Amino acid sequence: MADQTQELMFEILRKLQADITTIKEGQRDTRQDIASLRNYMHLLQGDFNNMRGTMTQVLDRLDRIENRLELRELQEAQARFEPHP
């Protein structure tokens, strides 16, 4: 009877060990997935930062162009109202 109890305990321990191994493998996969997501998020953040920088450059250029156009429009308007000799 003691032998059967001992064999039953060993069988239970083997199953627990197998279950724990499966859990550890799942944890390893989950860690890898999280690391991949973290890397992807860093790449996206870099892309957003680059786009923000590019957008700032475009807006600065647009401001300069608008300023030039306003100056030209002002010159044209003044030329229309100045008396010609």
Could you characterize the architecture of this molecule?
There is one protein chain. With 85 residues, the chain is mostly helical. Helix content is 94%, strand content 0%. The chain has one helix at residues 2-81. The chain is rod-shaped and about 125 Å long. The termini are far apart. The mean pLDDT is 91.
Feature tags:
mainly alpha; rod-shaped
Tell me roughly what share of residues is in helical segments. Answer: over 70%
Oligomer: single chain
Indicate the radius of gyration in whole angstroms: 37 Å
Annotation field: number of helices: 1
Q: Outline, from the CA principal axes?
A: rod-shaped
Ends apart, CA distance between termini: 127 Å
Low-confidence stretches: none
> Got a strand count?
0
Class inferred from helices and paired strands:
mainly alpha
Please summarize the sheet with the most strands.
none
What's the mean pLDDT score? 91
What proportion of the residues form beta strands (DSSP E)?
A: under 5%
Order of helices and strands: H
